[in-house]
Specification:
This protein is of the alpha/beta class. It has 8 helices and 12 strands. InterPro entries: AAA+_ATPase (IPR003593), ABC_transporter-like_ATP-bd (IPR003439), ABC_transporter-like_CS (IPR017871), ABC_transpr_LolD-like (IPR015854), MacB-like_ATP-bd (IPR017911), P-loop_NTPase (IPR027417).
């Protein structure tokens, strides 16, 4: 099935990433914690998905396992058609470099480099040249045209996070994982960054998976997946902030569905 997305001619909604019976266990015996309990979920191409749940529900663990930042105890994690389980370190590093973009709560910019140099740094390290046309489109999308020669200290928090967003987009990854990307931003800057992420999906055909605790942030997504006790317990399409908040109220303090 195909669907038309603004700015993208036709995006085939196949899975950019997929978990099948994904399980993650920490510790043994009395200290054993099941962070993910046989989770199966797809993250479709050219779609913005938010992952939500109470503290300790497994949302960050799911993202880390899907991004190859953490190993899985059982089950399957795939990026495209590549199975992450069992990949050797070198192959896993190459996959993360070539197919995955990351945006974290901390901006992780190098203070001695300009905004442009920070954006192209992963490709420079890999010895790859940036696609100038794509890079210009990314810079325009995130609104950094007049700031490329500035160093991080000369940029606001929102502008620094936009640099981080552009860095994640610049290499044309198959999927971007964002972990609380607006956690260190004020509401206005956060709204700008979320708008840029949404536009990257709608105008550039990017795939974004974002972990957040904020219903307002989740409302920028096309779909929200809810976790509790390490399991997917609900899903919401075309969410509003009020709808997300209402779903979240169903979880008690221990993360169980009421």
């Amino acid at each position: 099935m195909t669907t038309t997305t603004p700015g993208v001619h036709t995006a085939i909604r196949t899975a950019a990433a997929r978990a099948t019976d994904l399980t993650k266990v920490y510790g043994e015996g009395e200290t054993k914690v099941v962070a993910l309990d046989a989770v199966s979920v797809e993250f479709r191409r050219a779609e913005f998905t938010a992952i939500m749940g109470p503290s300790g529900s497994g949302k960050s663990t799911l993202m880390h396992c899907m991004a190859g930042l953490d190993t899985v105890s059982a089950g399957s994690a795939r990026i495209g058609e590549t199975e992450l389980t069992g990949l050797k370190d070198k192959k896993l590093t190459q996959l993360r470099r070539d197919k995955i973009g990351f945006i974290f709560q901390a901006f992780n910019l190098l203070p001695t480099l300009t905004a442009l140099e920070n954006i192209t740094l992963p490709m420079d390290i890999a010895g790859r040249k940036a696609d100038k046309g794509w890079l210009n489109q990314v810079v325009e999308t995130v609104g950094l045209g007049g700031r490329l020669k500035h160093r991080p200290a000369q940029l606001s928090g929102g502008q620094q996070q936009r640099v981080a967003v552009a860095r994640a987009l610049a290499s044309k990854p198959e999927i971007i994982f964002a972990d609380e990307p607006t956690g260190n931003l004020d509401s206005r800057s956060g709204a700008e960054v979320l708008g840029f992420l949404r536009n990257s999906v709608r105008e550039l055909g990017q795939t974004v998976v974002m972990v957040t605790h904020d219903p307002v942030a989740a409302a920028y997504a096309d779909r929200v997946v809810f976790l509790a006790d390490g399991r997917i317990v609900d899903e919401l399409a075309d969410p509003t902030a009020d709808e997300v908040l209402d779903r979240m109220k169903r979880f008690d303090a221990k993360g169980r569905v009421s």
